[in-house]
Amino acid sequence: LPLDDYRKALIRTEEMLQIGGELLLTEQEELANEKLMALKNAEITQAMKKNQFPPSMHFFRAKKLIEESKVFCVLKKMPKGAALHLHDFGILSVDWLVRNVTYRPHCHLCFTPSGNLKFRFADPAPPTPKPEGCSEWILLEKYRKQLQNVTEFDNSLLRNFTLVLEDPEIAYSDQAVIWARFENIFIAVSGLVHYAPVFREYFARGLEEFYEDNVQYLELRATLYPVYELNGQTHDQEWSLKTYQEVAQKFAKDHPDFTGVRIIYSNNRKNDVDRVAESVQIAMKLRVKFPESMAGFDLVGQEDKGHSLWDLKEALLLPATQGFDLPYFFHAGETNWQGTSIDENVLDALVLNTTRIGHGFALGRHPMARNVSWNRDIPIEVCPISNQVLQLVSDLRNHPAASLMSSGHPMVVSSDDPSIFGAKGLSYDFYEAFMGIGGMKADLRTLKQLALNSIKYSSLSVDKKKTTKEVWQKKWDKFVDDLAKLL
Ligand SMILES: O=c1[nH]cnc2c1ncn2[C@@H]1O[C@H](CO)[C@@H](O)[C@H]1O
């Protein structure tokens, strides 16, 4: 074979292997692809000249540039299918929490010894008991009245609800520091979002934000912590799940092109095997009672600080020993520490029959996990911005999913906790995946495959997948038409 032909054949084969590489585009899609790739090439050429490429910059600095990008503009309009990796209280921009929720009557605030915030609605006030070591409860309505500068105070609240700041590399010296801040944000918003009226509205508004970003269906990791009423009465997990179901069903009724939401009940991986076993039992009960909404079970929290899946196997094997089908959606391999028992979570997840792998950041270092995931068609859920902000990788061109994308490995793209990272919906993560991780050759096929994957790898029934895909296809055709017409 002449060298030239050989080389061309290699390039062509690689193009076929990459994610979406085997998709055949319609004429209209080809046209749209040309427009898209012209925008992409122009932006990358410009980025090379200026040496300023958003995916290789920290998202907090890249965000503004991304918002100026024409490719990003296209991605926002693109029907992206489903977002399959999200956490309960990271889905809605935090402005509403500060400007609306903290202004409601009976909202109290206290400071923990380490200076973190806790909120609680209560009437008659004050809420009891006072959290250990915390300051007295302050009624916000009263507190704001005596403040000189309320805007300044509200801005400080906003800052407490996201990780965003100017110099993340300096402020967050290592993963332990940023994870502590990250968990504190969940604790701070917890008292607000677990107040029953807010709980419903937060979720509905979260759905709206994703819907506006052209996402049709969500799967939400939820801890189902007790939701409380003004008088202190609390509700159990069943109540929370039922409420999620009601809100999602109403939203789907009001938006017929929205499929809905399914919940992945999640426990913290720091908990010991007995507590995890309890939550597995609850998950089984919920699954019987709410087959429509309850997708399965996961373990969340900082992987490096928690138990390995294998440590918890006694709890996690309970359903199987009882012949019960409890689908697992394990976070696994969200670590940089190769060779630890935590790093082996990617293997454990597969051994324990996971349906998908959350993050799977360590997959590239485990050839067997990679094989099994490929052979059993078990996708990884890639969350680029999360991985960068939580310091697993700085330049997203070096994200391990780059190699997996180039070989067409089963994957979906998701956004984890967009509101906490200062992002919104799914488009920012699609931008990072398309421009940074996917490289120059990722094109409309890549995007189409990622959207198709999000439906294919969802936990929806065969029927629901079919109808969701039909709705998606209509949106896609319209999107392609508009893109093809772009000047
Ligand atoms: O990327 C992640 N990896 C692991 N755990 C996470 C991530 N994002 C959020 N949470 C966890 O989810 C809980 C709320 O559902 C939070 O406590 C947080 O620890």
TrEMBL record:
It comes from the Eukaryota. Residues 3-75 form the Adenosine/AMP deaminase N-terminal domain. GO terms for cellular component: extracellular space. Coiled coil: none annotated. It catalyses: adenosine + H2O + H(+) = inosine + NH4(+). The gene is ADA2. GO terms for molecular function: adenosine deaminase activity; adenosine receptor binding; protein homodimerization activity; proteoglycan binding; zinc ion binding. It holds the Pfam family A_deaminase. This is Adenosine deaminase 2. Adenosine deaminase that may contribute to the degradation of extracellular adenosine, a signaling molecule that controls a variety of cellular responses. Requires elevated adenosine levels for optimal enzyme activity. Binds to cell surfaces via proteoglycans and may play a role in the regulation of cell proliferation and differentiation, independently of its enzyme activity. Keywords: Hydrolase, Metal-binding, Secreted, Signal. The keyword Nucleus does not apply. Its EC number is 3.5.4.4.
